[in-house]
Amino acid sequence: MKQLVIIGAGGMGRTLFDIARESVGYGTEFVIKGFIDDNIHALDGFENYPPVLSTISGYMPQPDEVFTFSIGGEARRACITNLVEKGAAFINLIHHTARIGTNVRLGTGNIIAAYTTLGADSRIGSYNMIQSYSVIGHDANIGDFNRIDTHVTCVGGITILDEATVHTGAVINHNVTVGHHAKVGALSFVIRSVKDDTTVFGSPARRI
Fold this sequence. Notes:
It is a single chain. The protein has 2 domains: 2-91, 3-Layer(aba) Sandwich (Rossmann fold), CATH 3.40.50; 97-202, UDP N-Acetylglucosamine Acyltransferase, domain 1 (3 Solenoid). It has 2 helices and 23 strands. It has helices at residues 11-21, 75-85, and strands spanning 2-7, 30-36, 52-54, 65-69, 93-94, 99-100, 105-106, 111-112, 117-118, 123-124, 129-130, 135-136, 141-142, 147-148, 153-154, 159-160, 165-166, 171-172, 177-178, 183-184, 189-190, 199-202, 205-207. The longest helix has 11 residues, at 11-21. The protein is globular. The chain starts with a strand and ends with a strand.
């Protein structure tokens, strides 16, 4: 039985604790060992959680451990890369209510939250967070280290490159590409491709 370590013990980390307990493999393939967080007092005042084991920077992965993350932004890649270089193994957390279509290809270290749909023949890279009730359409291509918030709809054939953020309720229209490090504002309807390192918002979405 593997021991799951959650990176980050803030609000999203506590949410990940619940997602993990409801994910495929919990209790049969892994149990939750605890959190690592540079704020070792992050859970002070909160009950019913496993402990903060260590700081992130000071933690040395053990052979029986697997990892998931709750941190976002630019820190995510550096943090995960550092732990992988120390030997950490990341797993996909897939909530038991998620619908995974035919021929979906998943990398490693992804979080697929409750009631999410991954459409037929979609490709999902590694270390992505796809939150509850979002839909990734058929033939979509999602890169690495992306954050896709709740109730997002990615229509068939879209592409999201790496380290992008798509906020709550956004719709990415057919065949649109969202570039590296791009951000899509909440409730936006994106009908044109989004260039690298830009932010768009509105309906139709425009650069801001």
